[in-house]
Amino acid sequence: MEKFDICIIGAGPGGYKAALILAKNGKKVCLVEKKEYHIGGTCLNEGCIPAKNFLESSNYIKKFSYFQNQGVQGDIKGFDFNCLKENTKTLIDTLRGGIEKKLQSNNVKIVYGKAEFLSEDEIRVESRGETIKADKFIIATGSISRKHPVLEFDSKMILSSDDIFSLEDIPDSLLIVGAGAIGCEFADFFNALGSKVHLCEFTPSILPLEDSDVSSIVQKEFKKRGIDIDTSANVISYKKTKDKVEVVFETKRGKVVKSYDKVLVSIGRIPNTSSMSIDNAKVQIDEKGFIETDFSLKTTNSNIYAIGDVTTSAALAHVAYYEAKKAAYDILGFKALNDSVVPNVVFTSPQVGSVGKNERYLKSNDMEYDVKKLFLRTLGMPKIKGDDSGFVKLLFDKKRKLLGASMVGYDMTEIINQVMICINTKLSLDDIKSMIFAHPTMSESFYKAIEG
Q1: How many CB atoms lie within 10 A of CB 2?
Q2: Number of CB atoms found within 10 A of residue 68's CB
Q3: Where in the chain are all domains bearing CATH 3.50.50.60?
Q4: pLDDT of residue 44
């Protein structure tokens, strides 16, 4: 049995980031990952990175008519889906290899296999039949796709977001159940490649975490491109035939029956905490499976930390990176990190970015605020880029301090980070107004919104 200073369970963004910080600061670190060739976790292997690579390719198709209007001559002869998948695999392998090299060069021991707690300071790695002891543990096991109460995953016709990258062909018809960020991004991708896409959402709007004026812009653009959308809709039954899935819905239009080649279920994710005998470590989880933590990310066992999707914080890779640093700093005795506002991004066309408090939150909590809103059609660069849909909306208090922002439009997943910096550094609108932004750029949309 080998003894370590810290053992980290889960090698996703949070897990490998924490391992590197701790190892670079002299700690003896073991990193346990359930699957071989899965360093980087869901984000790298079946999530953020492959999804955005898919979307980048489909964006070229969506903009082709604009290219032609700008004088580019040529035709689209087709789309090689297998080529995109191979390119994506190469991308993933390259990035994973880089992470593995960093871990190895910092003497992090990587152990593959399913971890199970035997006690507060010992785990067993099942596939290897070995036990590992450590002074401290970090649980970073991430999340798994939430099961639908009616539709059962089969990885062939009824798919999770993990399955989508294994498709052999672009389906002629696709139902996407769940219109959050993941569902909307895949609706955007498959629509661009010719699928007849139907987006079905249980709540009254797509992108339900965003303000209604944001989601309505995305919905309007989706409908222009032929994506069918049903909100306040619920799947009540289904049956599979040889090559179709027939689905029955309750919608605002009444009961609807439709058939599809494939069904993608994207109704969120749940913490991956149920199979590691966590009770043996005296770590408390809530009724939904989330691990309870304090400000420093310690669990109810002060020698065990939890980060990323297993906690109640936002299930985002950039949050996991931040929490990895926060937990590692606490273990090392470094100065505690201040909490940051978290940007949320959606890579649809148009893109969505939001940070801080949104209007829905401010209204529901009876908070006073003012609004500045700039429509992108009034600027030059969005038109030059070929998409001037959307707006920048800034929310601020009586002292003209930013409370939050919501943006929808071209490249807004990049611009939102400017607002995050301003909120964290407590800059007022007047502070920002005194700066010079380059022209013509997409970034000046933020400045122009302040200027009014």
Answers
A1: 13
A2: 12
A3: 2-144+270-332, 158-267
A4: 97
Closest C-alpha to 187, from 196, 173, 197, 177 = 197
Active-site residue 148, yes or no?
no
* DSSP category for residue 252: T
Query: Tell me, what amino acid is at 117?
Result: F
How many angstroms separate the CA atoms of 307 and 291, rounded?
A: 9
Kindly report the CATH number that applies to the domain delimited by 344-451.
3.30.390.30
Query: Based on the number of CB atoms within 10 Å of its own CB, is 136 exposed (0-12), middle (13-18) or buried (19 or more)?
Result: buried
Q: What is the largest CA-CA distance in the chain?
A: 68
Residue among 38, 148, 198, 439 flagged as catalytic = 439
Q: Tell how strand 130-139 and strand 2-9 pair up.
A: parallel
**DSSP at 136:** E
Residue with tokens 């060069």: 105
CATH superfamily, with its number, for domain 2-144+270-332: FAD/NAD(P)-binding domain (3.50.50.60)
The per-residue DSSP string of 52-97 comes to HHHHHHHHHHHTHHHHHHTT---------HHHHHHHHHHHHHHHHH
Q: Cα 5–9–12 angle (5° rounding)?
A: 120
Judge contact between 106 and 24, C-beta under 8 A.
Answer: yes
Beta bridge partners, 38, equal none
Q: How confident is the model at residue 208 (pLDDT cuts 50, 70, 90)?
A: very high
User: What confidence tier does 123 reach under pLDDT thresholds 50, 70, 90?
Assistant: very high
Instruction: Show the beta-strand stretches assigned E in 293-433.
Output: 304-306, 344-346, 351-356, 370-375, 391-396, 402-409
Rounded to the nearest 10 degrees, the angle between the axes of helix 13-24 and helix 317-332 is: 30
- In this predicted structure, the answer to whether residue 366 has a pLDDT above a threshold of 90 is yes
Homologous superfamily of domain range 158-267: FAD/NAD(P)-binding domain (3.50.50.60)
